[in-house]
Amino acid sequence: MVWVPLGHLRTHRLTVQRPSNNHCPKMSVAWLLDWSWSLDGLRDCIATGIQSVRDCDTTALTTVACLLVLFVWYCYHVGREQPRPYVTVNSLMQSADVNGLQNGYVYCQSPECVRCTHNDGLNQKLYHNLQEYAKRYSWSGMGRIHKGIREQGRYLNSRPSIQKPEVFFLPDLPTTPYFSRDAQKHDVELLERNFQTILCEFETLYKAFSNCSLPQGWKMNSTPSGEWFTFYLVNQGVCVPRNCRKCPRTYRLLGSLRTCIGNNVFGNACISVLSPGTVITEHYGPTNIRIRCHLGLKTPSGCELVVGGEPQCWAEGRCLLFDDSFLHTAFHEGSAEEGPRVVFMVDLWHPNVAAAERQALDFIFAPGR
Description:
Blueprint: H1 11-17, H2 29-55, H3 58-80, H4 89-92, E1 101-102, E2 105-106, H5 122-136, H6 143-150, H7 152-158, E3 178-179, H8 185-193, H9 195-206, E4 218-221, E5 228-235, E6 238-239, H10 241-246, H11 248-256, E7 269-274, E8 278-283, E9 290-298, E10 303-307, E11 310-312, E12 319-322, E13 328-332, E14 341-349, H12 355-364
Antiparallel strand pairs: 1-2, 3-12, 4-5, 5-6, 5-7, 7-14, 8-13, 9-12, 9-14, 10-11, 10-13
Helix pairs in contact: 5-6, 5-12
Pfam family, one: Asp_Arg_Hydrox
Main location: membrane
Membrane topology: Single-pass type II membrane protein
């Protein structure tokens, strides 16, 4: 039998390895030592913290407390803040007389017309539509639209009288009464290549004017003198199926245009006819986000378009681009023998409206929204 000395073994280790007969767990000496050290450390930490507070300057503590209170108050105030009241469309336009004459232009008062119907709370509705769009898609690229809707009243009221869109003004867009052909080069060239196609379909339609009554599909517009007729294929973003069936090739051509506005209330496509002796009173268009394109079909002498005080003449087979949010008018002072002035009119996107903005504006100003 070999005897092994136990001088180097710790007794508390033996205690842990050899529990008592009654099986009651005993706390090891090492655990007690660790616990004692932890309590001492915690006491020292608390004492150090208290001493640090005592040593801190009272003014600094008061300042921190005040800032904290102000921060809490600010969060509460922002959380309870309601959207600011917006200026409605009624206050953005001049008051109408008994005949519905505003800005020298007779309004149709139709409940479907986005320009002629003045709904209270329009700006709040537009802001709601923008928020709904951002929730579905993204706020990215919406800065100008958000700015335009929030400050619509200020923008419209502060605009010079030469340019005052009546429904929606998008800020920070370059402004000019007329645009060069290169502004929407692809669509301009496509329209001009199809000049004869559009002209032939118009001449077929115009034969119906031999009767005294207004032919089906045509609309007569208010003018101080003469007659102004329009035949819409797309009216405020809504296709007119019966009219489109009468001009199938022209309607298909619209689908080939890259920048045609066809999905919101600011988009129109129509044939516009001015009889000799007609004057269209000066008026403003509803928005600056579009360019109005006129393709000359029949352009007798004595016809002019005046936009922002600058006159231009149409030419057959050529496109004329202008911003109709400027004050504009048109007239036909030619003789009756020369016949009517006829243009094919289509609304195109302003070249400086980004793709993301176009998508959002189609959503916000969707027909019926």
